[in-house]
Amino acid sequence: MKHIKVNDLLNGSNLLQEVTAKGWVRSFRNNQFIALNDGSTINNIQCVVDLDKFPADLLKKVTTGSAIAVKGTLVESQGAGQKFEIQVNNLEVLGESDPEKYPIQPKKHSLEFLRENAHLRVRTNAFGAIMRVRSVLSFAVHKYFQENGFYYVNTPIITGSDAEGAGEMFQVTSFPLDGSAPKNEDGTINYKEDFFGKQTNLTVSGQLEAETYAMALGQVYTFGPTFRAENSNTSRHLAEFWMIEPEVAFNDLDANMDLAEDFIKSVIKYTLEKCEDDLNFLDQRLKDEEKNKPQAERSEMSLIEKLNFVLENNFKRVSYTEAIDILKASKPNKNKKFQYLIDEWGADLQSEHERFLVEKHFKCPVILFDYPAKIKAFYMRLNEDGKTVRAMDILFPGIGEIVGGSQREERYDVLVEKMKALDISEEELWWYLDTRKFGSAVHSGFGLGFERLVLFVTGMTNIRDVIPFPRTPQNAEF
Amino acid sequence: MKHIKVNDLLNGSNLLQEVTAKGWVRSFRNNQFIALNDGSTINNIQCVVDLDKFPADLLKKVTTGSAIAVKGTLVESQGAGQKFEIQVNNLEVLGESDPEKYPIQPKKHSLEFLRENAHLRVRTNAFGAIMRVRSVLSFAVHKYFQENGFYYVNTPIITGSDAEGAGEMFQVTSFPLDGSAPKNEDGTINYKEDFFGKQTNLTVSGQLEAETYAMALGQVYTFGPTFRAENSNTSRHLAEFWMIEPEVAFNDLDANMDLAEDFIKSVIKYTLEKCEDDLNFLDQRLKDEEKNKPQAERSEMSLIEKLNFVLENNFKRVSYTEAIDILKASKPNKNKKFQYLIDEWGADLQSEHERFLVEKHFKCPVILFDYPAKIKAFYMRLNEDGKTVRAMDILFPGIGEIVGGSQREERYDVLVEKMKALDISEEELWWYLDTRKFGSAVHSGFGLGFERLVLFVTGMTNIRDVIPFPRTPQNAEF
Predict the structure, then answer these.
(1) Euclidean distance between the first and final Cα of chain B, in Å?
(2) Which residues form a coiled coil (chains A, B) (predicted)?
(3) Looking at the domain that runs over B123-166+207-465, which CATH code has it been given?
């Protein structure tokens, strides 16, 4: 008899029928009530066993974490907390779980402890909920773009070019590291003999390749892993993370902001609809967490209120120049409470400034645009003022920067001049420059760090808790 | 005025209205008919310009590959080949394309030439079609799993473990390669000082990690990049490719075969429905290709017939032992036409044998199962006969192996014994073994090389032509 998923059992359509369920024991209360979970939902199905009907040594094996199969009748539950339960006629222990050794007990474990058991933490309510929400959010991303005429592009992971002009990349090689790799006459490594015939790294962004596709298919997006070899051990950074990068021909920066805002709202809306139980659990989890905080540090809104707030309000669009004026005149700047004081136009904004703007001043998601050219990447379109570029960052409460995007410099001459000034090799990016040589057009795009979105939607605070197996400095376990 | 996508213009809903279109010129015939494409569809919109209305030096810039914007009235076309066209009132050249230099001319280019211009090849009809089909197939994959209660899991790309026990991996490091990397006293590399504190590689499979998630969420799948550092320059291998790996708790091998067959049929069906124009083009392309072949080498079926054939017929399920008997008795074996003759049970099947079974003997997709344990991976479940494992491979005509899967060995003791025999470190895979220690259960899964599926659906023959920027030995351009 095929088993029925807990999620389907709980909707009651098999009421009074003989059913089979399989899953893992969350708890076994009074030698009578088994809370069975199979991952299809955060909710357990209660399986009621009659103590006298089963041998004691079988029941002894029904411990937290064990895998079991039960057969029985689905009935309406008399107890509180569940509508339906299974009156068990048949019980089989598929895989035992020694309670002395099983790390995940029915009690509160610290997030740190669970990170060390990343292969088991998804068996807890919180991580089951987080990972289901993550999955639904992923699908929402694909659904949004596919239904709006975008094509998914798999840009390369191993790359010979360095999109951002930044140096923080992991090297990929088939060479040994002990010094025996082939060398040129001048003593440098002879990469011609390495697997790809050149030095290669893990990608930091698929944007440049995506641009070449946007200039043919019109609207494209990437959704894949990207990498940073930055030695930053913070709650907001991962060495390996998933990024979403749409790129649209003929979109200017305004259209780009419209797209980003509509996209974020759509995927949150879809997830709110699809993950009600999981989000209610995470909402309550956050409320419980907050109880331990001093009143002043508690959020004004619950998790679900915060998500609805984002849906219902326009993101505030503010130019960099306006933002600098606000920051200059702000209390923490005047009282020297900022670590980095803002005294002039051109300063790079730090996390403390972004948080002030979003959490104290505007109290809503903020889109900053038209940044100084000097603090932004070479491919961003220069404004007529000659000193700002058509860049935008979206800042979220509690998260900081969640999106970074721009209108791209479509003018060949301006782009080449910029690359020269920054010492970026034209020879290496010949193919990127081709897009400006042949049928160039206005186009725009952005990058959204997927884990930051999952952080926001789940209300978690450490990015290591929203990706199954986090990669960070000194950690590549599992 | 916002521009309308070509795909939407061609459905005629804006008939007799003033419209704006933007895109790239495919051809400009008789100084009068511009074929404009914007990537939203393989079809062009014809834009009719009145020679006398526009300055000659403007029209001169309307060349293949240039980006233009046109305004005009959408009318029914008098000419053959299209239902609607734009009578152009306003023409703007957004980005020129020097016809002397633009590599993609309106003529047939070789696939080799186009590979060298992978940043521009998607501007051709064939590659536009392939990449749109690839995108729709990707979405079909997500849609199938999400609608069937699977959760998407992002397993790590950078890994400290070696899932298959195979050695062909790319190393990932922050160390220099010139011999100056920190060393231990015994002269070996001191990986403790490398970024992750251990030696790390690019993943060859997310299966083992996915198994840990299946044992909590029940039904999961991965869809991400995987890597092989194999120096094989063939039309079927890539160093970087995308793999789909579902993993299902409580599924045995039969259920696994059912899932694989249903999955493949579903995604092909969805793509046939969504990509009619692109697949018709690719169908015709293949017919044209075949005309150059001798009669005997031509396919019996067209591309679309082949896709429908897969939908309408059951995959033939054949045990390895039966397959060996068929091969032993086959003509090419008796006539010594096989390069590797089959003389006894236990032989590993080569591509020539798989092709014989699929293309000559059964003439349909074939699922081979119950392979000798010796030629399969350590994690596959041992049958009661003690010599075969619950493995399955799905073989497709023209493609060969498209799926490899198995029921996993769920018995802790048997698994440990197998690992010992193969010298696979228990210490390294402690977390994998935990799934057999705590709540173990029957479970199964498979891996499907996404590019091989795209090959099959598009009718292309070289795997480098179905991924945007292929990575192969000596090639990581773009």
Answers:
(1) 35
(2) 272-299
(3) 3.30.930.10
